[in-house]
Request: fold
Amino acid sequence: MALDLLKMRYFAKIAELGSFTRASSELGVAQPALSLHVRGLEEQLGVQLLNRTPRGVIATEAGQTLLSHAQAILRALEQAEAATKEQAKYPTGDVSLGILSSICPTLSIPVIEECSEQFPNIRLTISEGDSQALRAAIDMRVHDLAVTLDSVAKPTSVPLFEEMLYVVGPSGKFAPDDTLTVEQALGLPLILPTRRHGIRILLERQALIFGQELNIVREIEGVESTKAAVRAGLGLTILGRSAVHADHENRTLSAIALTRPALTRRLVLDIPVNHPLTRAVIEVRKILWGVVGKLGAEGHWTCL
Reply:
């Protein structure tokens, strides 16, 4: 039969203090109850643990053996409690966050900064990729969280925001008051990724709606390579606001929003199914939501 932890705690305190009276005062337990617990412990072990003397109590040889083990066990429990409380206050662990490549530069830095400031013991790894790669990584549980397109995410994903799509050209291509409809944009000489990418899929659907063909002059994988090709005058492209905002502000590229209808894409937070979230993952998720909301307030996208 396993030893009763409460009896061991009471016995240890009595043996350490050498007095039932003092132990009773510190523990807040009546002396008769302490005597009963010690007697039960002695009966369970079949040995005498304490010798009563006029000056108090002294642990027997068996009592000294039990006391040394009891102290180690109680100390270990205290350390476990302290470590658990510390973990609750300062979570630790590895967290892998995947972010769609086109929004990763905008979203990743503030998330990293917030996580480092609030939870320095969390080891956050951020990886960028296209929507299909992020979905595969979630399915394989390579990532704990992924910000991706709703068109490829699991039905259990959580909506985050909607982002306007812009036609992007070389610096000076578009004037501030220029407008372009979706139908007009489909006929432009476009540099687009392959059909596995979300924006390409969205534009293909729009082309079907308008009964026309996309005018694709080049296929290039990668947002930065696509923007470099646009700067070189090889064609135009269509990107989300976050992917081109800094370039537009710095006048290294020009961009105008698509209108009639306004064309947007929805980003969601995808999480592995049937995979319990650690405290570290939960805290990173909270930070991510906060950053998304803050950037939304700054006009980068419309939060959902």
